[in-house]
Design brief:
40 residues; mainly alpha; 1 helix; membrane; transmembrane; transmembrane helix
Length: 40
């Protein structure tokens, strides 16, 4: 069970690096171009 959770953690960490990290850069760029105005 522990090894399964560890493998799942590694998979989630890999997916986080693969998908969510570019999205955070994308949101940072949107924030610089007036991203906050969309939610005001």
């Amino acid at each position: 069970m522990f090894s399964y959770n560890y493998t799942l953690f590694k998979l989630v960490f890999f997916l986080h690096r693969l998908f969510f990290l570019p999205y955070s850069y994308f949101f940072l760029i949107l924030n610089k171009t007036g991203f906050k105005k969309l939610f005001e």
